[in-house]
Each structure stands twice: as C-alpha cells, then as structure tokens.
Amino acid sequence: MKSEGFRVIGKGIPLSDSREKATGEAVYLPDYHEEGMLYGRILRSPHPHAKILHIDVSKARRLPGVRAVITHQDIPKIRFGVFDPPDKYPLEDDKVRFIGDEVAAVAAIDEEVAEEALQLIHVDYEVLPAVFDSLEAMSPGAPSIHEKANNIGTYICRQFGNVEQGFKESDHIFEDHFTTQGVAHCCLEPHGCIASYRSPGRYDFKITTQNTPTAHLQLAKALGVSINQVLVSKLKIGGAFGGKLGIEPVDLICGHLARQTGSSVKIIYTRAEEFQVTRIRHPSIIELKTGVRSDGQFIARKAKLIYDNGAYNSHGPRILASACGKFTALYGYTPNIKVEGYLVYTNNPYGGAFRGYGNPQITFAMESQMDMIAERLGMDNVELHLKNALHPNTITNCGAKITSCGLTECIQDAARTMGWKEKRRATPYRGVGMAVMVHSASGSRGLFSKGNFSDAVVKMTPDGGAVVLSGACDMGQGSDTVLAQVAAEELGILPRDVKMETSRTDIAPMDLGSYASRVTFMAGNAVQRAASKVRARLRELAGEMLEANVSDLVMKEGKIFVKGSPEKGMTVAEVVSQAYAMKGTLLTERGYYVAEYDPPDPKTGYGTYSLANSYACHMVEVEVDPKTGRWRIINYVAAHDSGRIINPLMAKAQIEGSIAQGIGFASTEDFDLARGKIRNDQFLSYRVPTPLDIPPIQVIFVETEDPNGPYGAKGLGEPGLVPVAPAIVNAIYHATGVRIKDLPVTPEKILEGLQKKKD
Amino acid sequence: MLRLTKCDYLAAGSLEEALSMVTQSKGEAKVIAGGTDLLVKLKKREANYKRLIGLKGISNLDFIVEERDQIRLGPLVTHDGASRSSLLKRYVGFLAEACGDLGSYQVRCMGTVVGNVCNASPSADSLPSLLALDARISILSSTGEKSVPLDRVFVGPFMTLVRNDEIVTAIEIPKPPPESRGIYVKMPKVTEKDETLVGVALLLRREASTGKIEQIRLGLGSVAPTPIRAKETESILTGKNPEDPKVLAQAKEVLMKEISPRSRAGYRRHITGYLFEEGLRALLSKNS
Amino acid sequence: MDMAEREVELRVNGTPYRIRIEPHRTLLEVLRETLHLTGTKEGCGLGDCGSCTVLIDGKPVLSCLTLALEVGGRDIRTIEGLADRERLDPLQEAFVNHGAVQCGFCTPGMILTAKALLADKKNPTDLEIRKAIAGNLCRCTGYVKIVEAIKSVAEGEE
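^ inputs. structure came back:
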C-alpha cells in the first residue's frame, strides 16, 4: 500500500460510533420513543392481483383506542417513485398488484389495538388473473398489470457496431442462457418510520433511509406540500444494502396518519412483512451470444436481459439501465456490442435497489460464459481475462472513459495469492474459479437530478475540533468515519475531534445519497474541498499569530508549528479561539464537488456513466463431495481496485460482508414463491449464510490513484458482492465438470449434473 | 414488535398441580417448559390458549439420575444440560452429542429434551437417537402414571399421543449394553447450520467372535411424517455381517421402502442411504 | 379478554425492578418497553436471529421467546449491564477495535452470546466460536472480524 505521508488517510480505524453500538446506547428507529406516540399497522392485500371494489373501515374506526384509519380516500391522489411517471400510491385505490400491496392503515394507542383494528377493516376484492413469470407476462393475453403493452415497463436497447456482422467474422460462437433468483436484503433492523405533524403543516420524519435529501424531495412531492414543510432525519440504521434507498409506502402512510391524528405515529415492520413486502433483487433471465476469435479476442457480444420487475417500479428502470451498462462496459473494447433489456411487470413482490444494482445478475452470466469460452479455446481463464481486460486512460467502444483501472493487477495479484496455476491442475473434486467485475465507484447521474454532485460545509469549533455538514448518509457502513478521516487529514486534527452532522435535511447540505458506491468519492471530494479551504485559513491565521511564513508551517495532531521549531507553535484550538475572539474571523467553508464529464447520449447510450469505476477479481477454491453434492469454499481471494483505501480496516470489513451476501446469492438464499406469496418469510426458512458458511477470506487492495477521487480514493460499498456467484460456479465447474447456469447452486443440481456426466 | 395474544399465566408448584390446572382448563390451557416451540406457535397464531401453565418454577425437575438399568431425565432438562451430563456422555454419548449440536446455543439453553419430544417435530435432532435407544416416556394423568415406548408416541407431524390433560414427567433411557456403539449423523437443509434435512441414529451391537450384527437400532428424522424406527431394515440386518457390501445394499433397499419424504424427496432418499452407510462405517471403525 | 396485570421483580444488570405487567408479555417487550432498555433488539421475534439475546444466570437466552413472569428472581444481564461505567467489557473493546461493528444491530446479542461462550470455554477453537454464534445472524460483516474479536479476548489480547 502506498502511503504518501498521510497521517489519517490510510489508517484502519473502527467506525466512530462503534462504542455506542457495542454498549447498546445507539438509538435505532424501533428504539425511539416519545410520550403520546401512536402506533400504526398497515392492511395489505392477500391477493396478487385484484380490483378493490369497496373498503369498509367503519368498524375499525369505532374500536376504542383507534385514533385514525385511512384509505386512499383520505390522502391526496399523488403517486410516488423514483421515476417519471411514478406508478405507486401509498394506499392503492382501484387495484392491488401483489400480495402485500398497501390498502389501508391504522394508528392506535398501541400496536395490539392497531392489529385488532386491521381485522375489523373489510375489503371487497374482485380477484383478477395474475401472472408470476416474466416470459408469460410478456406474452399476448397476459393479464395487464399497469396497462403497459406486454407488461414491459422499460425497454432499453444499445448498440455499437454491428453484432450480426461480428458473429460472421468470429471463429467461435457461444450462446448461453442463465437465470438468477430473487433474494432479500435481510437487514437485521426492519423498515419503519416515525412521523409527526404540527400545524400549520409541518411534517417531521424519522425514517430508515440511506438518503435523507432525496427522501425529503420525494416525501414533500408525494404529500403535496412544499419542501420546507418537511423535515427528514434518521437515527442509526441497522443495515440497508440498497433496501432503504428512497421512500417506501410506510413513510407516506405514517405521514398521513400523523396529519390525521395530530400525533407522532410509529410503524415498524414485522419480519414477515420485511420478507413479503420490501424490495428484492430483480430475478433475471439472461441470454448471451458471444463471438470470439480463436486467439481470445472478442469480436461481437450480444445480450438480452429480462428482469422481473414485480408489481411496481421502484428503481427497476435504473437498475436495468445499470445492468445493460455493465454489459457494455466490462469487455468494452469489443468492436460490436448490443444489449437489449426488458423490465417486465409481474404480480410478484417487487424489485428495488440491492447492493450491485443489477450488476450481480449480468456479471454472473458474463463471467460464467468467460469460463466456458476459455475452456473451448484451450486458454487459461486468467489469460483470457488479461487479454480482454480494461486498461487505464482508455475509452471503450461504447464511449466510456476509463481513468484509473487496476483490473490487470487485481487478476495477477489474486492469481498469485491463490496459487491459481498450481490449483488449476486437475484434482478430483477440488477446483478453483475466478470472476472479474466493474462497477461504479463514484455514482452516476443522480436520482432527481441531471448531475452527480455533493455539497459540504466544514466549520471549526473553539476547542480545535471541526463540524462537518454533509448530506451523505451513514447507514452503518461507516461513511461518517471515512468523511471524518478526510476532514481530519486536511485539518491536521484527529478523526475523533471531527463531529459529523449528516442526516437532518434542515442542516445538511444536498447530497444524492449513499448508493452506487459513491459516497467516498463524491462526499469525500466535497468534504476535502471544504476542509482544505479551512486549512488554508488556519495556516494564514497561524502565520499571522506566529509571525511566520505560511509555507514554513506544519500541521500535525491538532498543532500548527514552524518546521523545525515545534516550540514555536500553537494548538489548533488556540488559533481558532484567538481568531474568533480577536478577529471575529469565520472559519466555516463550503466545498462543492460535481462529477464533470459528458453524460451518455440519451438515445444511443454512448458515453461515460461514471467518472470513476472500481474493479475486482475474485478467486474461489472449492471442494465438492460427489456423494452428497454438498461443497465448501476452502479459500477465497478478493483483489479490489477502489483507488486509495482511506480506511483499510473497514474497507476489508465491507468486502468481507459483501462476499458473505454474495455467497448467499450464489447458493443459500432463495424464495419459496408460490403464486406471489413468499412462503419462507422467516430466517428459519430463508437462509442467510451462518458463520459456518464463510470461508477464510483474503482481501487484497490494488491501490491505483484515481485522478478524480479524494486522495485518489474510489467507492467500494458494492463491488465485493458482484463477482462472487460466477467465481463460485466456475470453481464448482472446475472441480466437477458440472456447469450451473441457474442460480442458486444446490447440492441437487450438482448431483444431477454429475449423474448426467456419467450417462 | 411480534407479541403473543393476551393469555393468562400460572406458575405451577408441582407436576401434580400443573396437571390439575391443565385438566380444569378443559383444553384451553397448555403446559410450558422451555417454551421455544410453543411461543413461536403462539406468535404465528398457529395455536391459541387462554392459559399457559409454567413448569419452570418447580424445583428439581432438571434431574438426570442413574437407575440400575436406565437413566431418567426430568422434564426441565435442557439440551445444553443433557449435552454436559457425565452420565449421558458415559452411557449414551451419541445422544449427548446430538443434544449439544442441535439448534443454536440459545435454543439449547432454553429448550428441554422432554419439550422436544412433546413438540414432535419430524426433524428434531434428539428424537432419532432416543428412538434408537428404545426410550420411554412417563405420562402422568388424573388416572395415574404410565410408561409408553417412544416409538408409539409420535402419531403425526407435531402430534403425539400425549393428551392435553396429561403431562410427561420423565424420559427413561435404557442403558445400552457396554459393547454397543451409537452414532447420530445428519445433513442440514441448506446452510451448514440449519434445520435437519435427514438425521440418522444408529445403535449397534456386534457378536464378539463373528462380528455379525447382534442387534441394530435405526432411528430416522425428517424422512417421514414423524421420527421413525426403521424396523424392517433393522431386522434384515440382524445376524448379518455389516461389512458385507451385499448386505448393505440389501439393507438400503429395504430402508428406502420405510421412509416417505415429501419435499426434496429424491435427494432425501439419496442422503438417507448415504448417512446410513457413513454412520455404519463410523461405528464399525470406532474402538472402545 | 382483559388480563389483569401481575407483579414481578426482575433483577436486570444487578438492579431489582418491581413492575406490573400482563402475563403474556415477553422479556424482550418488558426490557424495551417497560424498562426502556433498548439495547436488546428485535430482529425477527421468532427466535431465529439472536438479536434479542440476553444472559440469564450466565446462559444465553432469546428474550423474545421468554415470558417475563417466568424469570423473576433470576440474574438477567443485558448489553447495558456489561460495561462498568466508563470501562468497557473486554469483548466490547475487542469488537470495537477489530472493526467487528458495522451497523451494530446484531452487536449486543452477539457480544452477550460470546460472553457466555468464553465463560464456558476459556480457549475455544475457531469452529467452536462459529458454532456458538451460529444463532446470531449478522448481515453486514460476514462474521470475519466478529470471530477475530472473540478469539482475541479468548487469547487474552485485550
């Protein structure tokens, strides 16, 4: 790891709020209590597709202890959502489209009364035919869910060059079909909201969200009020992973109940609700057709993606676009590329943002096929990857500018650490597999904005500490800590002396949110700019006070002193106090960062989506028991380029956690979905990896220096999950000769494959 | 917050008192020991009782005592307690091990062995071993106490012949002869720690001179509506040489007829055969 | 049915609390809603996730599946009772220092389970640690640093 004399950047320190989490003092939404608070519950559709004929809430309203019962008739008719036009009401009016769809809500003096009131609400439904399979949903005669032709909510097509011509010029053609399953975030903290309302029209929200600023915009719009009538803040968040990105119906429902009752209203989901009604990763069907020259050069690549949107949009369109973009990006020097994406409505629980944002599915397909291509060409998989890897300071044939890129080093370092060459020699039922990935490391165009930007304010306090205001939200991943390190580095103070104020919308400046692995890059840049301006002011002031040249001053551990004469110095606290007392000088500065690049052409998609990208190569060694089909990972090596690593301890922690989620996606997690009902709606039956499922993991950081990232840093919240499934599947193939193209991997599939080979 | 529906709770001072409380409640009350299974059922609204009658306040119900030919366990012996018992480890080590590995650390400290019997989950990890050991339960009712062999107790998934106005007061485990060897092997459903997909308990006694099987007991979990004894397989193996592959093949064939898995049936059958072989192999190689 | 409240004395973190509660209340409800000790979390309410773990007479117990009336007079320890004013328990220190805390929601239950483990086994193996915490789900960390933290306390590094 390169350290250029940074004091704090590059230091592995625990998250700044670890202590309060370890003592139980940290307050999460379910912990928050106020006198006179009411408790809400939501009535949900038991049908996957039905007309709402009539809702009778009269009995429920009369139940003692009930303070409000609302349906669509009691709230403004405003749909909400990330995209235009949005497709979801907080309480549906004429139709329900999935099991769990919101129909009515109750606020009462306690949860038990609210629950009882729900039983007293009577809804007349006219059940409609439903569809649960995306191919069926696209076929003629399928029930129409949103009155969109063939239930196709979004269609994307991007072409560069001429793929049909390219296939003609190829020596080998590969056509493969893959599917991936829906999976759940399984945050340990369920979703929830606390809303209060004060006349004449002030809403106060505490929500479980990864981005208060954009939640703020969405809430105001959907409530039908102006932005400054709404205040949004968050408490500690117990996991998000994309599942708490933006607002959910519960937030608006809570707000409306608060307005009706004039009290604070709290709604916390049960775990069963979490499984049934919160966002999932879009299930996918992916067809790849690839034309290759015998020497491993790609000539043409074509993909067709069908992502099962479920009943509503959420982030679907953007996720599909992101997935299509990753297809064009990863082997972007290919002269002919075509991708078609279909986002299809079905009456299943609906998809949303989930770590990787559409990339894990397409990367599973791409990197599985790479393995098959390498085998047929008689090339080692590492060799094939190195031949086609992206390189720094290039432009792909789809117009994406690659700045920093350590993909080659990731592949080489991973191979060396894993002992790839030796382990590729055949050993019965033991194998190694690999996969690479590219992902955004700076975010792209924002939600609700034409740009990607972040705004920050840094101010000094007379004790020599600093306060940083940023709109970036810490969802438990530690962005507050990393941003504090940035500020501390610039100001010559310690991270523990930096106070982060990052969530209240009336205080924090605008930021687009914690998603797309953008915070370290975007908010980090904004904070660095603001803090470096403050540093310049501090040095100026110290120079005056010490009667020294600014260029002779050193800032270290809260002190500013003349180089070589440490006794000729002052503490930062002294500088700040004197400045305030004697000069009345303001030591508050603003930093603003905009990711400057030409956006992709809206029609063709040609251009750069993300100013910086992260890269990774994962290698997995597995051992398979051919008698039972069970297998275990013996060794896991993950090499990542996320630029300079600001906090190696917690960066490793992010990768380790992502890999665990990737193992779940690859093998242990699956919905038992029957006609739109998730039957395994508890942790007992929906299996997230346990400590016994996690192998020894080695994380390698290839620290390229991104020209645009703060100190050369790039984001890494998501990349660790993206290549896990294909690396595992490729390792299993190497160990057994069984190719699994439909996730999740199960022992039955392995045994079936072994049996087929025998026959 | 996931809550129970409103109900009453009475702490019994003795098993007799508990019995009379539950009898008087005429089906509206349920006895609660560890409570892990019962509270989950109540929270999921799969059952509803007006009154819960707690045994935790009764002292000395967590006994594990050695009698001449058997070991008796009281109704409040937890799986954690069973796994640590030097008596159980000495005489029926594989049962102690099974108790020490089921569920989670927390569930082992809370759930009782008797409770697990009464819950009668087809996949419970203690039950195959208890079946292989020919365990019996003592049932107390208003007409007195009776002893019932465990393999008659399970009548359906989560159903036993213990009536609502009866209480199980002990499990009795006959001490296996010292030459016997026992083992419990299992396969999880999905993750490494999980509910059990197939569980196989084997208790084997070989003739000293010939090595032939003098007696074998085979208890199976999660492959039928209840935990079962594979009695046909047992009888076909008796008197035979367990190291003879033809004998094993024949036994597996019979075994397949005795099980009736529903979900993932093909895989469960395969794993049952596999665990049977693995379990037997392990037993044959165990020394003293 | 209106259930009359009953009186019980719960000894939590060494402090006796004499309270009146309805018979169907779980220990988790009482800790969080009556005693306002919100360090113990509800992750599922069905005993599958371990977030509600507390120690009762030193043993790890799922408070969401425990009736409050049944634990009067027992020694109940929650996460709030671990630190000695300013001084953290070695496990808490280790979790913090090893980076084993991310979102923190599983942390209280995880630490208490680990505490019970280390009271029972002075030097658990990696496998024994993993088995002991297998009833405490974590979605953020992949358990890597959690196991490291527990091991470090067992080996006396804290």
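The longest strand of chain A covers residues 298-310. Chain A touches chain B at residues 111-112, 268, 270-271, 627-630, 632, 668, 684, 687-693, 747-748, 751 (CB under 8 Å).
thumbs up if we can close this ticket
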